[in-house]
Every structure is written in C-alpha cells, then in structure tokens.
Amino acid sequence: MVIQKQIYTSDEFRAFCEQPENKNRLFELIDGEIVEKVGSFTPSKLAIRIARHVGNFADEHDIGNVTGADGTYILSPRHHFMPDVGYISKERLPNDPPREVQGPPDFAVEVKSPNDTKREMRKKAEDYLAFGTRLVWLVFPDDQEVEVYVPSEDVKTVKIDGVLSGGDVLPGFTLAVKDIFK
After folding, report:
1. pLDDT at 38
2. Which of 16, 45, 54, 75 could form a Cys-Cys staple with 131, CB 3.0–4.6 A?
3. For the chain, which residues score pLDDT lower than 70?
C-alpha cells in the first residue's frame, strides 16, 4: 500500500520511519515511494519455512546470512527493500551491519500477500536483478508455484511437483516446492 504519492530521498524515508506513529510498522522505499509492508499469516508462515531451509543450509556450510521481513537492503537512494527472505554471502558481508545492508541481497524471496499484485511483485523482482541480486523467488500461495528470476535468463515457473535450486548463489541447495506449501 503506497502511503503518499511523493518521491522521498533516503534521509526523508528514514525520518518518516523513525516518527513515533511509525515505530511498530514496516516500510519499504520503492522507486522513491513509501510502501507499507502489511503482515499476513500465511505469507509469513511460508516465508519462515523457506528461511528455515535456506538458513540451515547457510549455517551448515558457513557461507552467509539469512534475514527475514525486517532485514533492510539499500539497493539505491530510492530503493530500500525488505525481502520476506534475504540471503547475503559472508564474502560480501563478513560482519553484521549496525542497521541495514548497503547493497542488494544475493538472493531474495517475496511471498505474495493479499495486498500484493503479481504485477507489483514482478516489477520488484526486476528491480532486484537490476541492482545486482542474482536470484529471486516470487512465491504465489494461491497457485502453489514459484517464479524464479535470474539475470539474463527467462523467468521460470516451478509448480508444486517441482524442485527449486540455489543455482550459483547457493550451490547444492535445493527445496521441493511441495515443502513450502505443506
């Protein structure tokens, strides 16, 4: 949900988020517009399920960090994204930042909430790729499928009986789509 049709800078966005009335709310900056992330039970449950699998893999191989829906990545001064699940390699981020990550996640997962449109989600996936994210999964609970975005490749749709791959971002990682939608 766009809060106000106005273009904000990073500093203005931070000031907005720090206002007392916004203390317990989550916002993203998309194309300079402030968009509130509205929570929803099923998308949250699915994101946590994915994060658990990715996080266990990352921890087991000691290769990087996984964030949830409040982990902020600053892709540009007009793009502050909070993927439902984010991953960034230790190579790119050896130490935890004090607040947010300056730069894109290596891997981002967005789970469709009731307020999201597929068009908005697909635009966001393209934005992730444009700013350097190397793998994006868009998860559609109603369809029980996942769209996979990789730079310079066609979008691939993986249905309930398929298996997702971490590609060159998480080599060796796989996740059956049915395990997301148990």
Report:
1. 83
2. 75
3. 1-5
